[in-house]
Amino acid sequence: MSTTTQNSEKTRPTDNLMDGTGLARRLVQQTTEAAADLLRRTGTAPCLATVLVGEDPASVTYVRMKQNRCAGAGIRSRHVALPASVSTAELVDAVAVLSADPDVHGILLQHPVGPHIDERAAFEAIAPEKDVDGVTMHSFAAMGFGLPGFVSCTPGGIMRLLDAYDVDLAGKHAVVVGRSAILGKPVGMLLLGQDATVTYCHSRTSDLPALVREADVVVAAVGRPRLIAGTDVKPGAVVVDAGYNPGNVGDVDFETARERASLITPVPGGVGPMTIAVLLEQTVTAATRQLGLPVGG
Ligand code: NAP
User: Fold this and answer.
1) Is 67 part of the annotated catalytic residue set?
2) Ligand 1 close to Cβ of residue 179 (< 6 A)
3) 179 is in an annotated binding site
4) Which residues span the domain enclosing 249?
5) What are 212-265's pLDDT values in tens digits?
């Protein structure tokens, strides 16, 4: 996926809030039109396969929400529900069947899959051209090398937001707090690809506030309510809060940070809506490529 935003996505803020809800709505609208166009031209609607292991209520809700959003955008869903007792080999087989099925264009394996399963092995059974959630080693390497491929959806959504608000990253000091494989690490790689100077922070970082105070761009990806004090935000910095904690609270102390930031994402309504929008967009892109048509053509 390209992280360069179409002109129609450019957003002029009326205050210093980055409106992820509005941007995601526009991106989903474009994706819906692309899915309809694909159906008209090929007779095939894009199809996202979702794989769920067990019945964890949060995971069931996430998967259902993704299926509903797919339906709204003209993307078909295929659901594979597996018992919590499934073995790694059985899960790998189920994913491999979807990878080989020409009627499935994208695959989403809902995380977590259970402690007894080798999650990496299951993710790696996703064919790279169907990895619309950007979870395979192939996708991660492509992101790192700056090569075409599917990006991890939340980092991809963050980059779209920054681009839509014309945040020039070249030469800026970006401090990424969090280093998970789906969020912190890839967003740092994407920021580096846009010529930011990137510092990663994590639970062993010795003086997080001092590093945050030096940041032109802060990306919070931790899952600790209000870990980042607004008073540590450099005046004029851009603050992206991917954290989502109980009570609709982010990782940044929003009210105080907002007084100092030039741009800031709200929680909710900032990064969250962008994640699913990127998933839908990448599914239609995958289908377009697999059906032999040029993307964006
Ligand atoms: P994760 O896998 O638990 O990773 C959390 C990261 O934060 C780890 O790298 C950890 O460091 C670091 N960390 C923990 N405590 C810290 C501290 N006191 N100081 C500095 N760093 C600390 O979480 P994740 O999956 O990346 O998710 C992070 C947050 O983003 C969560 O709130 C999650 O709900 C949210 N999220 C939102 C979306 C969305 O669509 N908006 C998508 C995914 C995740 P170590 O590596 O040293 O343990």
Assistant:
1) no
2) yes
3) yes
4) 153-272
5) 999 999 999 999 999 999 999 999 999 999 999 999 999 999 999 999 999 999
